[in-house]
Automatic annotation (TrEMBL):
Organism expressing this protein natively: Symbiobacterium thermophilum (strain DSM 24528 / JCM 14929 / IAM 14863 / T)
Protein EC: 2.7.3.9
Main localization category: cytoplasm
Keywords of this entry: Coiled coil, Cytoplasm, Kinase, Magnesium, Metal-binding, Phosphotransferase system, Pyruvate, Sugar transport, Transferase, Transport
Residue ranges occupied by any PEP-utilising enzyme C-terminal domain in the UniProt entry: 254-539
An individual GO BP term: phosphoenolpyruvate-dependent sugar phosphotransferase system
Name listed for the protein in its UniProt record: Phosphoenolpyruvate-protein phosphotransferase
Length: 573
């Protein structure tokens, strides 16, 4: 038993992304309930506060612009201009002179200004309404001493209640050492991002926000789910030793990146990477990915104030394909909704967003949005080996409707004389139990399946994937899940189609071993996880994995499954 030093505070959360790190905390307080409205001070004082907030917002935008790409810089410039807009300024000043505190005045003025823009005939100006609202949010945050988005000035461990993907989009990854959140689960989208960046993360860490303060040293272990605030000398040296071991392992992984993922008895598994942007495609390839098993296209739509145009999307998809150097890139069509909100799309608030208008359901309701993406994808198809994948397919009618939309996009491009590749694969995510149960029907009408275990687990077990209260119940090793996966694989193979897994389960050693045993052809995961899974594949005979998986299908609980698989995985280390 380890004895904690007098000052250090040890907290336990859920291990979310592997790795250990020590660094100063950056406590991100955005997303906390807003403090109660304050009474207005004298107008002169409120005007001075507004001026100060404007300067602060401007500095934040400058800092963001320094490391943004061209497209990001364009948006940030628009926001800078908005901050200086005399009309907006007049509205705020008038509201302050009317007796409102600066926060309230900014809210009223930006809402008025945005509504005014929305009423205009000019489409470009109408779209600026979202920018105005964004700028208003930044100003209110500056007035209340908070920041919008995580803006790091030095290498830091970000401590937050939770991080929405939009909060993380502007993060300077070279300064991000680790993430600790009070909420979130192992497959929430922030966790997925952390894992894909190879950044250690611990989520569902009760009490961390209250206990941590800016600049406090934080040690975090993303394998054990441990967070130590203000670590003592003994803890520090333990963490430093672990960091040194991780560096050595990373060296070995680099040396082994080009070895094939083949079991000792000659079964070849394709190991691919998950990505959220063209840049991450390049990163995955460096880590030894044999292609991209999931490019979450919705991340291109986040952290901005309007949807990317067909041309912008085409450029991004073409770049992703080029970065994969001839290997297959599976680009998933938009999966917005659930825990991924895109404010400018104006999605309705729902009681149960994971069961609501998400992914294809949203695309079917917004044919323009869907057609723009499908056209951009097909135009990009000439730049590499493209596969298009539809998410959240619940049955044959979803699939047929999505394929018809794709055919329509193709017809319109051909009519306009755009070149489109002759051959690209079309597949679906199998992540809703109804699709798993109808896999035999679906398999006849697709080129491939990719099993989305993150959602398949949540929908099969009725456990919200992001609810920290239910982390224990969120079990990819549940025999009910394994039986569904078995059924999906059998159906795909019976129809002569290949089947992959792009959910987080494929990147967990126990999960990968079971999936290998169930006959999955491809595993796609956060690139940082590839080396370890490759070691596992190269040292586990497929015949042994098959025998264990068969046995697990007959078990009754996830605990029994883990008891059987755990020792085989630990053997590899
Ligand atoms: C999944 O559900 O397993 C998946 C890969 O998709 P997402 O995590 O984006 O829902
Ligand atoms: Mg999913």
């Amino acid at each position: 038993m380890r004895v904690a030093s007098v000052s250090e505070k040890v907290l336990n959360g859920v291990a979310a992304a592997a790795g250990v790190v020590i660094g100063p905390a950056f406590v991100y307080r955005e997303g906390q309930p807003e403090t109660a409205a304050r009474a207005a001070a004298a107008p002169e004082e409120e005007l001075a506060r507004f001026e100060e907030a404007r300067r602060r917002a401007e500095n934040e935008l400058n800092a963001l612009a320094e490391r943004a790409d061209d497209q990001g810089r364009e948006i940030l410039t628009a926001h800078q201009l908005m901050l200086q807009d005399p009309e907006l300024q007049n509205l705020v000043e008038a509201a302050i002179r009317d007796g409102q505190p600066a926060e309230e005045a900014v809210r009223t003025a930006t809402e008025q200004f945005a509504a005014m823009l929305e009423a205009l005939d000019d489409e470009y100006l109408r779209e600026r309404a979202a920018d105005v609202r964004d700028v208003g949010r930044r100003l209110v945050a500056a007035l209340t001493g908070r920041t919008v988005g995580v803006v790091l000035q030095r290498p830091s461990v970000v401590v937050a209640r939770d991080l929405a993907p939009t909060d993380t989009i502007g993060i300077d990854r070279s300064l991000l050492l680790g993430i600790v959140t009070e909420q979130g689960g192992p497959t929430s989208h922030t966790t997925i991002l952390a894992r894909s960046w190879g950044i250690p993360a611990v989520v569902a860490t009760a009490g961390v926000l209250e206990a941590a303060s800016d600049g406090m040293t934080v040690a975090l272990d993303g394998d054990a789910g441990e967070v130590v605030l203000d670590p003592g000398a003994e803890t520090r040296s333990r963490y430093e030793a672990a960091m040194a071991r991780a560096r050595e392992q990373a060296e070995r992984d680099r040396a082994e990146a080009s070895l094939p993922a083949e079991t000792p008895d000659g079964v070849r598994v394709e190991l691919a990477g998950n990505a959220g942007s063209p840049g991450e495609v390049a990163f995955a390839m460096e880590k030894g990915a044999e292609g991209i098993g999931l490019l979450r296209s919705e991340f291109l739509f986040m952290g901005r104030s309007t949807a990317p145009t067909e041309e912008e999307q085409y450029q991004a998809y073409a770049e992703a394909l080029r970065n994969a150097r001839g290997q297959r890139v599976i680009i998933r069509t938009l999966d917005i909704g659930g825990d991924k909100d895109v404010p400018y799309l104006g999605l309705a608030k729902e009681e149960n967003p994971f069961l609501g208008v998400r992914a294809l359901r949203l695309c079917f309701r917004r044919p323009e949005l869907f057609q723009t993406q499908l056209r951009a994808l097909l135009r990009a198809s000439v730049h590499g080996r493209l596969a298009i994948m539809f998410p959240m397919v619940s049955g044959l009618s979803d699939l047929r409707r999505a394929k018809e939309a794709l055919a329509e996009a193709r017809r319109s491009l051909e009519a306009e004389g755009h070149p489109v590749a002759d051959r690209y694969e079309v597949g679906i995510m199998v992540e809703i139990p109804s699709a798993a149960l109808l896999a035999d029907h679906l398999a006849r009408e697709v080129d491939f399946f990719s099993i989305g275990t993150n959602d398949l687990v949540q929908y099969t077990l009725a456990v919200d994937r992001g609810n920290p209260e239910l982390t224990e119940m969120y079990q990819p090793y549940h025999p009910a899940v394994l039986r569904l996966i078995d059924r999906i694989v059998q159906a795909a193979h019976a129809a002569g189609k290949w089947v992959g897994v792009c959910g987080e389960m494929g990147g967990l050693p126990e999960g990968a071993l079971l999936l290998l045993g169930l006959g999955v052809d491809e595993l796609s995961m956060a690139p940082a996880l590839l080396p370890r899974i490759k070691r596992l594949v190269r040292s586990t005979p497929a015949a042994e994995a098959r025998a264990v998986a068969r046995e697990c299908l007959e078990l009754g609980t996830p605990e029994e499954v883990l008891a059987l698989v755990g020792p085989l995985v630990r053997r590899v280390g």
